[in-house]
Design brief:
Blueprint (H helix, E strand, L loop, with lengths): L2 E12 L3 H12 L5 E3 L13 E2 L9 E2 H14 L3 E3 L5 E3 L5 E5 L2 E10 L3 E3 L5 H5 L5 E2 L2 H4 L7 E5 L3 H10 L5 E5 L9 H9 L3 E4 L2 E8 L4 E8 L5 E5 L3 E4 L3 E3 L30 E3 L11 H27 L1
Parallel strand pairs: 1-2, 1-8, 2-5, 8-19, 10-17, 11-12, 11-17, 12-13
Antiparallel strand pairs: 3-4, 6-7, 7-8, 9-18, 14-15, 15-16
The structure holds NADPH dihydro-nicotinamide-adenine-dinucleotide phosphate.
Length: 319
């Protein structure tokens, strides 16, 4: 049975990374009394990072979880209400909109979606087994743990190039494993990779198994993507996946316009989606920049867009 109340929220914010929390700070300060449904694994991708050195205002750096804790405290200070649950379903067809958390139904005049994106993995059992024990999807977060040991990066896009380059600061040798014989990355980034003496590119290869002992990764087994033949075992202690991100938009795909890879489409220069009253901020609508600070910036935009939209609805009612 669905448990519902007559209360209609001004705005429900879904997601609690820098985009959602910044939207909450702005919406709360605008007296919208926002309800944030923060998810059971609140905080988003920053919770998986160690030092954040590029978020303005923290000259000594700050850890990802600490940054999230500070943003949350700031949102709380202006009376944002938090629900630490996952949204299980939405209904944007009727107004007020309906947001479901299991059997509980919430009604709201507007919604800010800030559900972020998740790194993609290869889907191997062995990859799961060695997660955070050599397998990582974030070189920027974990690279420094791999001093003077060989590591591999999987992928051929700009992220793979950037991560490989970054890892050469720590690792003794960096392998880039790519499934084709040309990079998808921009030419300048690809050239930088190809010129770097510490990077070796292995073309037409895929990882079929992550090898390790009872503590950590010791290597990867590779296969030739053209012939399907087993290839070398590469002795590496770190395996960095850089094969893209998947926006967390499954809940919304029946209602919102998404681009060809699943990111929510927003009207350029704004956070408006195709449904008036539903706004999107942060990585869920940004395949390009994907930074904490750009997510926070768009969270601010979403709250301002939302506030003005709600105000316009009130004005319409008065007419
Ligand atoms: P991309 O989608 O551009 O690249 C993903 C790469 O991973 C591709 O080379 C793809 O291979 C490979 N791949 C995907 N799935 C698998 C799989 N299952 N097994 C093996 N390989 C796989 O993602 P990025 O994260 O690199 O970039 C995302 C966006 O962010 C891009 O627009 C990029 O330009 C941008 N970006 C820009 C940066 C900058 O300018 N400084 C830095 C980082 C990102 P294939 O090529 O065969 O499809």
């Amino acid at each position: 049975m669905v448990e519902s109340s007559d209360q209609v929220e001004n705005v429900i914010i879904i997601g609690s990374g820098p985009a959602g929390l910044t939207a909450a700070i702005y919406a709360a300060r605008a007296n919208l009394n926002p309800l944030m449904i923060e998810g059971e694994e609140a905080g988003g991708q920053l919770m998986l990072t160690t030092d954040v050195e590029n978020y303005p205002g923290f000259p000594e750096g700050i850890t990802g979880p600490e940054l999230i804790a500070q943003l949350r405290k700031q949102a709380e200070r202006f009376n944002t209400r938090f629900l630490t649950k996952n949204v299980t379903r939405v209904d944007f067809e009727q107004r007020p909109f309906r947001i479901f958390v299991g059997a509980r139904e919430f009604k709201t005049h507007s919604v800010i979606i800030a559900t972020g994106a998740s790194a993609k993995y290869l889907g191997l059992d062995s990859e799961k087994r060695y997660m955070n024990r050599g397998v990582s999807a974030c070189a920027t977060c974990d690279g420094a743990f791999f001093k003077n040991v060989p590591v591999a990066v999987v992928g051929g896009g700009d992220t793979a190039m950037e991560e490989a380059q970054f890892l050469t600061r720590f690792a003794s040798q960096v392998y880039v494993i790519h499934r084709r014989d040309t990079f998808r990355a921009s030419k300048i980034m690809a050239d930088r990779t190809l010129r770097n003496p510490k990077i070796t590119v292995l073309w037409n290869r895929e990882v079929v198994e992550v090898l390790g002992n009872d503590k950590h990764v010791t290597g990867v087994r590779l296969r030739d993507t053209l012939s399907g033949a087993d290839k070398e075992i590469l002795n590496v202690e770190g395996l960095f996946l850089a094969i893209g991100h998947k926006p967390n938009t499954d809940l919304f795909k029946n209602y919102l316009d998404l681009n060809e890879v699943g990111y929510i489409k927003t009207r350029p220069g704004s956070t408006y989606t195709n449904i008036p009253g539903v706004f999107a901020a942060g990585d869920v609508q940004d395949p390009v920049y994907r930074q904490a600070i750009t997510a926070a910036g768009s969270g601010c935009m979403a709250a301002i867009d939302c506030e003005r939209w709600l105000e316009a609805q009130e004005d319409l009612k008065k007419k």
